[in-house]
Write a structure and sequence with these properties.
With 564 residues, the chain is of the alpha/beta class. The chain has 18 helices and 28 strands. Strands 20-19-24-23-26-25-27-28 form an eight-stranded mixed β-sheet. A six-stranded mixed β-sheet has the order 3-2-7-16-17-18, with no helix packed on it. Strands 8-9-10-11-12 form a five-stranded parallel β-sheet, covered by helices on one side. Helix 3 crosses helix 4 and helix 12 (280-289) runs antiparallel to helix 13 (294-301). The longest helix has 17 residues, at 508-524. It is globular and about 90 Å long.
C-alpha cells in the first residue's frame, strides 16, 4: 500500500492512525476558534481533525492546546554560535519546526564550502532547515571578506531541494541603480523567492527595489516604515533577536487584518538568550502580553510565514497538512510541552538518529600577529569621528568629538565612554588593520575581541588600552576564532568558535554556560551593553544616520563611516 493510500485510509478511519493526540483542543487559524478534537497523524501528515480517532499510539493531551509548528523566516544559524545540528537540538524543543536560513556569515568566510556544509547539514536535521543562497558575498567592497560568490557560483545550488531562493538582498543601492553584478543575480532568480533587506528605504526608490521581484523585508524598525512596505506588497518579517529588537516598535501592525502579510524572525539569537527567554515562543507570549490578538501573532508564526515563502504544505492544524505541531499549555503562555516535526515526536532519542556532518573552516583565522603599537591613532586637529552604539539596534551613529591627546596620540575618553576599536583582516589576504573610536560599550579597563564581525567577519576588538587589545586579538588566532575578554594582559574569559571562526564544536549547553561566564567577565570590565559581543560583531557595518542614495548608485559617503 502506498503512503498516499495509507493516509486516505487512516483519514477516513478505515485504519488506525499512526498517532492520535486525544482530549485536547487545537487553535484554528482560519476561524480563531479553539476546537475540541482528536488529531490523527499518518507518517509526516495530519490526516484527521474535528472527529474521534483510534491510533496505534494514542497520546493524552487533556488540558493542552495544539498549534502549528513555528517558522523562523529569516535567521543566520551562525549567530547561534553552534552548528546546524546543535541549533536543531537547541531550538526545535521550543516549537520551531522550520527555519529559513541565510548562510551569509559562513559564506563570507568560506564561500561555497560554507554553503555546502549548511546544505549537507539541512538534509540530516530533524527540524526542516531551508536555505536561501547568500546574495551579498562580499557584502561590501570597502572591507576584505574571505570569499566571493558571483552568480556563476550560486547557480549550481539553485535547484537543490533545500534551497528556496536568493537570500536578503542587502545591496539595495545596487538594485535601484542597476549594478551589473546585482542584476545578474536578480535575473537568475526571477520566479523564485528573493528575500529583501532595505532599512529605511522608501518612496520611489522602494518602488524600484520592489520592482525587481523582492517580496520580504526584516529590517523595519518603525510601524510607519512597515506600513509603507505592506501597502506596496511586501511581507514584513517582525524581528526580535539578541541585538536587533523591533517587536515592540512593530506591535501596532500586529493585527488580525494585517496578519496575512506578517511573519516572525530572529535574525541573530544566541543560546544564552534562548535559554533565558526562548525563541519564537518568546515573541508570541511577549506580543500577547502587550495586547496583540493571539490569532494575529500565531498566524504570523506559522501559516502567514509559510505562504510568504511558498511552503504550501504547512502552517495549519488540518488534514493533508504537514504534521509540524506544538502542544502548548495555553495560548498566552506558549510553553511547548511536546513537539512533532514531520509527524515525529521530538525526543533525545530522535536527535540521536541523525547523521553528523563534518565541520569545515577549522583553520580560517589567518590574521597577522599584532602589537600594542599597532593600535595607535595619531593626533589631529579638530574633532574625531566616533561610532555611536545604539543599544538594541544594529544601526549605529556617526558622531564627532574633540578627544584627549597624549603626546602625538589621540586617546580614549572614559568620562564620555569613548574607547578604541579596531578591525584586523583575518582571512590571510592583505593584513589590513584599521583603528577608530566607539562610544557606548562602557568599558573602564581591558578589552574584548571577536572573529564574528558582520559581514566580512574580520577580527573586531574594543578596548580601554592598546596592550590588552593586542593580547585579545592575538588570542583569537590561538583558538582559531571566537570571543575573548582580557584584563591587565590576562585572558579572563573566552569561547572558541573554530568552525569558520563563527561556530563552536561544543554542545549548545556548553556554549550557553560559557557565554554566561563571558558576560560576567565583560561586566567586570565595566561593560554596560546587554549583549556586548553581538553588539561588537555589528560595529564594522556602515553608519547611516540619514539615508541617501546618490546618483552614483552608492550611499552618500558623507553620511557614513566604515572601519576596516
Amino acid at each position: 500500500m502506498s503512503e498516499l493510500e495509507r493516509r486516505i485510509d487512516q483519514g477516513t478511519g478505515r485504519e488506525h492512525a499512526d498517532i492520535v493526540l486525544k482530549n485536547g483542543r487545537f487553535f484554528d487559524l482560519v476561524t480563531g476558534e479553539l476546537v475540541a478534537s482528536d488529531i490523527a497523524i499518518c507518517g509526516e501528515t495530519i490526516v484527521g481533525t474535528c472527529g474521534d480517532y483510534t491510533g496505534k499510539r494514542e497520546i493524552d493531551i487533556a488540558g493542552k492546546i495544539v498549534v502549528p509548528g513555528f517558522i523562523d523566516t529569516h535567521l543566520h544559524i551562525e549567530s547561534s554560535l553552534v552548528t546546524p545540528h546543535e541549533f536543531d537540538r537547541c531550538v526545535l524543543p521550543y516549537g520551531v519546526t522550520t527555519v529559513i536560513c541565510d548562510p551569509h556569515e559562513i559564506a563570507n568566510v568560506l564561500g561555497t564550502e560554507g554553503i555546502e556544509f549548511f546544505l549537507a547539514s539541512a538534509e540530516e536535521t530533524i527540524m526542516d532547515i531551508r536555505v536561501q543562497l547568500s546574495s551579498c558575498v562580499p557584502a561590501t567592497h570597502l572591507e576584505t571578506a574571505g570569499a566571493d560568490l558571483p552568480i556563476e557560483k550560486l547557480l549550481p545550488y539553485r535547484n537543490h531541494p533545500k534551497v528556496i531562493g536568493l537570500a536578503e538582498f542587502m545591496n539595495f543601492p545596487g538594485v535601484v541603480y542597476k549594478d551589473p553584478v546585482c542584476m545578474a543575480k536578480l535575473e537568475a532568480f526571477q520566479g523564485q523567492h528573493i528575500d529583501g533587506h532595505a532599512p529605511l528605504l522608501s518612496g520611489n526608490d522602494l518602488n524600484g527595489y520592489l520592482s525587481a521581484g523582492i517580496r520580504t523585508d526584516h529590517e523595519c524598525t518603525s510601524a510607519a516604515e512597515a506600513m509603507e512596505k505592506i501597502r506596496k506588497g511586501m511581507h514584513i518579517l517582525v524581528r526580535e533577536g539578541s541585538v536587533s529588537k523591533d517587536l515592540h516598535a512593530l506591535m501596532p501592525i500586529l493585527t488580525e487584518r494585517l496578519s496575512p502579510f506578517l511573519a516572525l524572525c530572529t535574525d541573530d539569537r544566541n543560546p544564552l538568550d534562548i535559554a533565558e527567554q526562548g525563541h519564537l515562543d518568546y515573541l508570541i507570549r511577549t506580543a500577547i502580553a502587550h495586547g496583540v490578538e493571539p490569532l494575529a501573532i500565531y498566524r504570523a508564526a506559522s501559516i502567514s510565514a509559510a505562504r510568504a515563502f511558498g511552503l504550501r504544505d504547512r502552517g495549519l492544524v488540518a488534514p493533508g497538512w504537514r504534521a509540524d505541531l506544538v502542544v502548548i499549555d495555553s495560548l498566552e503562555n506558549c510553553k511547548a510541552k511536546t513537539v512533532f516535526a514531520g509527524g515525529r515526536e521530538v525526543t533525545d532519542a530522535l536527535f540521536a538518529t541523525r547523521k553528523l556532518v563534518a565541520p569545515v573552516g577549522l583553520t580560517s583565522v589567518k590574521a597577522r600577529t599584532v602589537k600594542a603599537a599597532d593600535f595607535g591613532i595619531p593626533a589631529t586637529e579638530g574633532e574625531t569621528s566616533v561610532i555611536g552604539v545604539l543599544p538594541g539596534k544594529i544601526i549605529t551613529e556617526h558622531r564627532r568629538f574633540k578627544l584627549p591627546v597624549d603626546g602625538n596620540q589621540t586617546t580614549v575618553d572614559f568620562e564620555r565612554d569613548i574607547l578604541k576599536v579596531a578591525v584586523i583582516e583575518r582571512h590571510g589576504k592583505n593584513g589590513n588593520h584599521a583603528n577608530g573610536f566607539v562610544q557606548g560599550f562602557g568599558l573602564k579597563r581591558g578589552a574584548i575581541a571577536s572573529t564574528v564581525g558582520h559581514d566580512s567577519h574580520n577580527i573586531c576588538v574594543v578596548g580601554a588600552n592598546d596592550e590588552d587589545m593586542a593580547v585579545a586579538a592575538n588570542r583569537l588566532s590561538d583558538i582559531n576564532g571566537g570571543f575573548v575578554v582580557v584584563q591587565d594582559g590576562k585572558v579572563t574569559g573566552e569561547i572558541a568558535l573554530p568552525v569558520a571562526g563563527l561556530m563552536s564544536l561544543e554542545p549548545y549547553e556548553s556554549v550557553r554556560d560559557t557565554l554566561h561566564h563571558l558576560r560576567q567577565a565583560a561586566i567586570a570590565l565595566g561593560a554596560t551593553l546587554e549583549e556586548p559581543f553581538l553588539q561588537l560583531a555589528f560595529l564594522p557595518l556602515p553608519v547611516i544616520p540619514h539615508l541617501k542614495i546618490s546618483d552614483r548608485g552608492l550611499v552618500d559617503v558623507d553620511k557614513f563611516m566604515l572601519i576596516g
